[in-house]
Amino acid sequence: MSKENATKRNDLFAICILAAFFLLMVLLLYAYENYPIDDDWSYIWAVKNFFSTGQMKFTDWTAPSLVSQVWWGWIFSYLFGFSFATMRLSILVISFVGLAFFYRLVREVGHGYSASLCITLLLLVNPCSFPLTFTFFTDIPFLSLLIISAYFFFKGEKDDRDLPFLFGSIISSLALLIRQNGLLIPIAVCIYLAVKEMDKKKAIKRGLLTIALPLITFAIFIYWLNVIHGQTAESFKHAHEIKENFLKPQLLLFKILWRPFVILEFIGFSLIPLSFACVSKLRSVEKGTSPLFILFMSSGILFFLFFEHVGLFPSIYQWADGFKFAFISEYGIRGIFNILILFFKLIDFASVFSITILVYLLIKQWPMLKEKFSAPSPFFLLLTIGLFQLLFLFVTRKWYSRYFITVLPFFLIVLLEGQKKEQTEKKILLPLLFLFFLFSLVICQDFMAWNQTRWRAGKELLNEGIPAHTISAGFPWDCWHSYDYSKAHPLEVTTQKGEVPWWIEDLTPAVDPAYVISSSPHLISDSSNRNYFQTDQYQVYKAYDYFSLFYLMKKRVYVLKRGERRESRFAGEIYFDFLKNLPLMEVKKKEGEDIRAGAVTIREARKEALLQPLNTQVTFRIALPRKPCVLKMNLGGLADRGAQEENGILFKILIDDALIDNLEGIVGVMGTEHRNAFMKPRALFAKPRTFFIHYLKPSDQKWQETYLDFSHFSGKVIDLTFSVAAWPHPEEQSMVACWGEPIIMVEH
Hints:
It is a single chain. A hairpin with a 2-residue loop joins strand 8 and strand 9. The longest helix has 38 residues, at 426-463. This protein has helices spanning 3-31, 40-53, 67-80, 84-109, 113-125, 139-159, 163-176, 184-195, 200-229, 233-247, 249-270, 272-277, 291-309, 315-323, 337-364, 366-372, 378-392, 408-418, 426-463, 475-488, 502-506, 660-665, 667-675; strands at residues 471-472, 496-497, 515-518, 538-548, 553-562, 573-577, 586-588, 596-602, 605-613, 616-623, 629-639, 648-656, 689-696, 704-709, 717-727, 735-746. It is globular. The chain is built from 23 helices and 16 strands. The protein is 50% helix and 16% strand. The chain has 748 residues and is an alpha+beta fold. The N and C termini lie far apart (95 Å). The strands form three sheets. Strands 2-13-12-15-10-7 form a six-stranded antiparallel beta sheet, with no helix packed on it. Strands 6, 8, 9, 11, 14 and 16 form a six-stranded antiparallel beta sheet that branches.
């Protein structure tokens, strides 16, 4: 058999093994009923709308450009019919195609088929990317198109041909229609062509082939989004955040200081099998000192400094929280919290040790790498594409670890090139790869079984005739069933007392949670002990069992039913009078707006009130007593003549009790991690939690007496914010909000 035929046979064998993995994943997919998972309800909603109406329409929760993914989902819906499983199948297919191209890219770089296959499988089965293949998130489709376009650009440069540049341009245009940072792919290629010493005419020709179509595509998309469709709330937030990075350079500087550490830790987490397979190369002893021992001790110091002392969030925490896989659901704790924390700490340390090993090996091979990836070369082109994706991670609004997978393929290529002359211990790598695969598989089974059970519980409630907007089962359920209803009934804003889930506040305000589907019989979510919906009023209505491979035991999903609403009313003494403490307030308003105290008469009832123009906020810092207390107030509104009947006042009370004063006061209870919470990057951007929502229509011409139980915050210092807004038309501000006689009372 000729060498060429042997190569083709080996490549075919490798692709068949990759296909066998995906066949197993398809079987797992169809072993469970599929439902929206976190953010992908919004993306699936867009496909369903496009499939049924032919109109490209996004929800307010959509931040990525998404268009190509909607087209991709429509193709599969046309072929197999629309369903959640069909959407997931489409992701499995694009993932397989992307990884097949990654295998070919590694082969083109010059590696053997076995090493290329192992690295491709590592990219597939690592716990951060593997679960994404069972969602309709944008991560996997974008990663696949990023790899495919990089392959074509690399081939064009390596073979000195123009046509692959055109193919790369088309693919990168599709990539930017999934995520806007896809535009960075052709920009990176053009910069490479600009610095490369070559014929100017050829450089201009290839540059135009590379950038023209993506620029036209991006311009058309921006016009369509802003002029025809209308910018979504989330895309506006992301664009504003990126703008803020440059208007306020200190924000960008802060991200540049700490994000490299979490990105490197993520790479270490994802490549544990590969790094641990390289441990044998570190056993040599030089002058009595083992490099392995030094790296191990250095990893311990780095782990303590950055992830224990400073409090950076490691990948395993982000992964667990982002997908609710391990122990957190929207409602209720699912796992054995303390044991899992120890498990996560061990993985986190292993991640730091992993990246320390890999960086050490790269430093050892630096002279060879410098020569290999020097400009101009096809290898430097790949490095440039990866570098631009890395730079984008410093300006993104969010920093979930799954965003970092875009840099993994390029890091792997550099790492492989550095180890080209050394044989990786396959007898170590292959078992670790298999364990990684089993771990990811077990986690996915746990999540899919849990997701299926809670959605079945919700469907049974619907079959009993219970309206969907009176059921809350977490973010994806509520949005899938009640987003359209809330949009169609903007005046049905339900009064909420107790902490309000963010998605109900922002996306589904018409949800009235008479029934809650929870992972525990109490609505305590995560370690923050969030007090949702006055949780003491809910009782177990039904329970459903499922088996979790992650816990190796049966778990349970609960349906909780709300009891009769009770008001915390008592005759007590006044502890804090807001109107007598107006000098303490901090105000967020526009110039010319007047926030003051005054007498107001509504329906012949006269009360002293805080008069607050709409779309403003007033904050008081209060030290609450160490005994039961309530906030008593009377809500009212003054409407100008000609005020539209359909526009009213949205009252909110926001509370922030995560103050350093409180953390120092209960230092023995909270522990080191919570004491240092104010040092964590996320704490610098934390917002107060919404604790009360009430909607007042213009026709509600009377004082509405309201009590709000503050016993949950007894003994704490809190920032209490009165927020008012025009609703549902924020621009029409023809009313003034009145907080009548607001006081905090305590029991005698």
